[in-house]
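sry for the spam today, last one i promise. struct tokens for design, 487 residues
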């Protein structure tokens, strides 16, 4: 298992020798100690990425693509090992690591591998006699800071488009979950990525992350994490006016109308919040129910929530694993008290499971809380297996509740009425809206938020756009330009 920094094509210790314990969330045991990058290590990594940039950008685009395609193949060839590593480090149930995280990671690298030689410019119709063409040029060194909730998948969301477009990368995984990103670095090295093109520097946010965000030679910083840290990233970026892309928190509105297919909606709503223990920025954490179906829906939803199998993430029967850190488990549980203080009703969960086999891990029971739209648990991101139920009677009311937070990332609605579905999707203020489904993602479909959920988009041509600069070139083909100064 790799536990050092990956800089300039080699695994190296941190300059100051610092290390961080990586714990298994299922029982709190020590998995390994990793090297902790600090500012000096970040500087080395940025220098390596800067050195590698001209040759990488000049490489034929199809060659860059070929390396990304080979990486996707290597991920598939090592799928089981990566799935086990991700589950061990994050607590993702192995069925999800196998069926979602690993295949989605390979698919994303493959998508951007295929796209590398399809990043086309444009020819602009301008004044007669001139040719104006626009090229998309890489930015340079990209800093990427990723959180602990989907570390493997986020390596592909962040690195795939950046590398395809010809940039080089310094990526800081969360120090809580660095293992799969370090393994990806190893695979990249094996399939032939040149030294310095990708550098992986796990470390603390306030030291390593801060330095990367403020580094004068980094052209863009792409960040996924909390809105509060997102603001700090923007401040740190000011020195060299680097580009910033932010994928921040969410408070996903998931609206169930009274004409919905309730079986599908109940199952889909449970998936929307309980997948990955609710640690997802797009989680459907506000369940907004039409009053006519609310009681029936809740009775069955709570029954389903209680039946979800919590267990060791490496057990194929486990449907929900532990939260990723003890600190985060405590934060999630603190919201149960917040809910109670404001009169919220705990319909199920709200505590750690009583099963002694799970006592050493960071588990939280699936939790369903009924509250009011203005309550803190209906406004703030809990980021756990904690869903806040709200009721509505008219479409307008549903919309007002859905749009009544500072966030705007994922959203969902369940209805059989096609016109209502489109009408509501049009008016929900969110980057993504799922109709009669939830949490669908694809490497081709733009992903990102509005409001306090951030700006910029991952995936698809939108991401490529965000990882390139437009350069406009004017050619005087045979324009007759009258003299500007009559001499
Ligand atoms: P943070 O936003 O603090 O952490 C995300 C990443 O940013 C980590 O790698 C972190 O490193 C790094 N970071 C922290 N401070 C800085 C800084 N000053 N400069 C640069 N990088 C920094 O999230 P938390 O882990 O503290 O989680 C708190 C809450 O954030 C969650 O409860 C959830 O609401 C939200 N969140 C949202 C995510 C999303 O997918 N949008 C993902 C994760 C969290 P380090 O770990 O060392 O602090």
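last one done:
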């Amino acid at each position: 298992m790799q536990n050092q920094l990956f800089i300039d094509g080699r695994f190296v210790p941190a300059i100051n020798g610092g290390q961080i314990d990586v714990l298994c969330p299922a029982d709190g045991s020590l998995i390994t100690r990793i090297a902790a990058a600090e500012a000096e290590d970040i500087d080395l990594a940025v220098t390596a990425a800067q050195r590698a940039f001209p040759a990488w950008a000049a490489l034929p685009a199809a060659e860059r693509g070929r390396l990304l395609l080979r990486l996707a193949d290597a991920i598939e060839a090592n799928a089981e090992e990566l799935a086990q590593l991700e589950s061990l480090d994050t607590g993702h149930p192995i069925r999800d690591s196998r069926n979602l995280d690993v295949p989605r990671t390979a698919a994303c690298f493959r998508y951007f591998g295929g796209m590398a030689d399809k990043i086309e410019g444009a020819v602009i119709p301008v004044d007669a006699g001139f040719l104006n063409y626009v090229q998309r040029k890489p930015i340079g060194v990209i800093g990427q800071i990723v959180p602990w909730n989907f570390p493997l998948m986020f390596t592909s969301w962040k690195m795939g488009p950046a590398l395809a477009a010809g940039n080089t990368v310094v990526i800081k995984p969360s120090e809580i979950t660095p293992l799969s990103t370090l393994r990806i670095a190893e695979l990249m090295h094996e399939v032939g990525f040149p030294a310095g093109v990708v550098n992986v520097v796990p470390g603390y946010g306030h030291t390593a992350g801060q330095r990367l965000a403020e580094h004068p030679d980094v052209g863009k910083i792409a960040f996924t994490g909390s809105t509060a840290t997102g603001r700090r990233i923007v401040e740190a970026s000011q020195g060299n006016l680097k580009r910033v892309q932010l994928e921040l928190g969410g408070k996903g509105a998931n609206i169930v109308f009274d004409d919905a297919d309730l079986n599908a909606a109940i199952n889909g709503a449970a998936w929307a919040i309980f997948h990955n223990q609710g640690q997802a920025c797009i989680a459907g954490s506000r369940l907004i129910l039409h009053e006519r179906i609310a009681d029936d829906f809740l009775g069955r939803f709570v029954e389903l929530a209680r039946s979800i199998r919590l267990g060791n993430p490496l057990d194929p029967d486990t449907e929900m694993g532990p939260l990723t850190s003890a600190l985060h488990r405590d934060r999630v549980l603190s919201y149960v008290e917040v809910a109670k203080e404001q009169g919220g009703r705990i319909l199920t969960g709200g505590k750690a499971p009583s099963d002694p086999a799970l006592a050493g891990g960071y588990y939280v029971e699936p939790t369903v809380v009924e509250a009011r739209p203005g309550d803190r648990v209906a406004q703030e991101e809990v980021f756990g297996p904690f869903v806040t139920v709200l009721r509505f009677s008219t479409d307008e009311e549903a919309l007002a509740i859905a749009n009544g937070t500072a966030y705007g990332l994922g959203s969902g609605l369940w209805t059989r009425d096609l016109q209502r579905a489109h009408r509501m999707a049009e008016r929900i203020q969110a980057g993504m809206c799922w109709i009669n489904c939830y949490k669908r993602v694809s490497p081709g479909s733009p992903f990102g938020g509005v409001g306090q959920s951030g700006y910029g988009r991952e995936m698809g041509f939108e991401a490529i756009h965000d990882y390139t600069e437009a350069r406009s070139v004017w050619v005087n083909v045979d324009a007759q330009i009258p003299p500007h100064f009559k001499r």
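The chain has a mean pLDDT of 97. ok im logging off now
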